[in-house]
Specification:
The complex is a heterodimer of chains A (242) and B (284). By secondary structure, chain A is mostly helical. Chain A is built from twelve helices and no strands.
């Protein structure tokens, strides 16, 4: 079960973060007004760190006084008022929804991780995109390629290395998830909410079973090793001829 | 990079980015003003601004005194500053020596240092725990400082060696020709040139240590560790107790106390940081 949870936090947030960061980086790199401002705020969530992010979101997800349900209900009222009651009433059902209960916890984690991770990776991709040779785009333009095609056939190919590295980092980061689960379950994860990192700590500090804790750590290491190899292999691709 | 041609496209583009901006920034603004509301106000109207005639500054007092944040704050400052200075000194010297001098096995040492980036922390945890217990460094600030310094080194060496590699060796030779000692060539010539790298490393090391929870939690678990605990631990505890006693105001005040120093540090170094990320990402 812990393994399954771990696979989830390794892969699902990674997909979201890579996709969204790429989108944001592409949008910003098209040279729009206010680029400086965007660069400044992108790193805001990174300054908070795991504990603060977990606690902020724990409050935001609170069924009664939380930000998320409050926003959904406000939006529901708005949609009802606009006459879209089928959507509106759907959102209204989120009243008192317990995001952090056992069965919803892992899906509730995805927005937290995306919120926390996107900024940094957007900056990373942006930096990589800036290094792509402008002549390539000019040549493509001459040949009549649309901006969409330019993006898919030039930008993505040229920054593929950075994409690979970021995916590996995100997968490894996902394996090592600890404090979010630990804090969001009030330091008492149950067997259905464990990731590999959490039973390691509880066997070590609560049960004082060192042998078992070491065994868990070794499993974790193997997982990191296999996952990084797999990600690299998966994203490996012949070098682009320029 | 390119000029946007279609104005509709530009508009949608801007809307998406502003939407993202709201999603990123609003929770933080919400955190700041919610810390001034009473618990009841937080529950009844989560979005409303606090009553301006009746701001609840006592949330901060409860966090600072009641939840012992004054002690944690001091510990965090001491631990972060000491580890940061240690990391910067050791890493800059190591990276300089390993990239600028030709020596046998130098490259291998560098690779070994950097491969520390790949090893998950949890793997080292159990042996480290016993090592620290043997050296009586559990539940002490010194122990935490040593662990944090060692833990920050791979990343720091990785970034700094990238910077030293780009410096032309003729600069070093010129300094020696002009009669600099080895030490001065490093300290007055090479190190200032690597300043952007140093700033990047300092920022990320500081952020990592200031917010570090996992190791602090493991090595500060004893009952006698109260006096040595850092802010993330205090914040973790406050979140647990606030759930039972529904003292959300205190939790929010604690959040602000942890976040603000980080914000100040980062905004002060913001310009260099973006540059550093770009440089590190491209040079690798």
């Amino acid at each position: 079960m812990a393994l399954k949870n771990n696979l989830f936090v390794m892969i699902v947030p990674m997909l979201f973060i890579v996709f969204l960061s790429l989108l944001f980086a592409a949008l910003i790199s098209r040279g729009i007004w206010g680029r400086r401002v965007f660069q400044l705020y992108l790193l805001f969530p990174n300054m908070l760190g795991g504990v603060a992010v977990s606690i902020l979101w724990m409050n935001a997800y609170d069924p009664k006084g939380g930000l998320v349900n409050g926003a959904f209900i406000k939006l529901g009222h708005l949609l009802n008022w606009m006459g879209l009651s089928s959507f509106g009433n759907g959102l209204m059902q989120f009243q008192n929804f317990t995001w952090l209960s056992q069965e919803h916890l892992y899906w509730a984690l995805v927005p937290i991780m995306v919120w926390g991770g996107c900024g940094f990776y957007t900056l990373l991709y942006l930096a990589a995109m800036e290094n792509v040779d402008v002549e390539l785009y000019e040549a493509a333009e001459m040949d009549g390629a649309s901006p969409m095609r330019q993006f898919f056939y030039i930008t993505i190919l040229m920054i593929w290395d950075v994409l690979t590295i970021s995916a590996v980092f995100l997968v490894i980061g996902g394996i090592k998830t600890f404090e979010m689960i630990w804090l969001l379950t009030s330091q008492l994860p149950t067997s259905s909410t464990h990731v590999i990192g959490t039973p390691l700590v509880s066997t070590m500090l609560r049960d004082l079973d060192v042998g078992r804790a070491t065994a868990i750590a070794v499993v974790l290491f193997l997982l990191v090793f296999v996952a990084s190899l797999a990600t690299m292999r998966f994203m490996k691709r012949d070098d682009v001829a320029i | 990079m390119k000029k946007a041609r279609l104005s509709i496209f530009t508009l949608v583009n801007l809307l998406v980015l502003v939407g993202y901006f709201m999603v990123v920034v609003f929770p933080m603004i919400w955190m700041a003003y919610t810390s001034l509301k009473s618990d009841q106000e937080i529950f009844l109207a989560p979005f409303a601004l606090p009553d301006s005639g009746h701001l609840h500054w006592e949330n901060y007092q409860r966090a600072w005194v009641g939840a012992n944040f004054s002690q944690y704050f001091l510990n965090s400052v001491v631990v972060s500053a000491a580890s940061l200075i240690g990391t910067l000194i050791i890493a800059s010297m190591a990276a300089y020596a390993l990239t600028c001098f030709r020596m046998r096995g130098g490259n291998m040492i560098l690779m070994m240092l950097i491969s520390g980036l790949m090893i998950p922390l949890q793997l080292a945890l159990v042996p480290l725990f016993f090592q620290m217990r043997g050296m009586h460094l559990l539940n002490s600030r010194l122990g935490l400082i040593l662990v944090y310094t060692a833990w920050s080194l791979p990343f720091a060496v990785f970034i700094l060696s990238g910077f030293f590699k780009t410096l032309p060796s003729s600069l070093y030779e010129a300094a020696i020709m002009d009669g600099c000692s080895e030490w001065r060539a490093f300290w007055s010539v090479m190190l200032p040139l690597a300043r952007p790298g140093l700033i990047t490393v300092a920022t990320f090391t500081f952020l990592g240590i200031w917010n570090e929870y996992f190791m602090a939690f493991m090595f500060m678990s004893g009952a006698e560790s109260e006096a040595a605990r850092t802010l993330p631990l205090g914040l973790g505890n406050i979140s647990i107790t606030s759930q039972y006693r529904s003292e959300w105001g205190t939790a929010f005040a604690g959040l602000v106390l942890v976040t603000v120093p980080c914000m100040i540090f980062c905004i002060a170094l913001q310009k260099h940081m973006v540059k550093g990320i770009s440089a590190g990402a491209v040079k690798g």
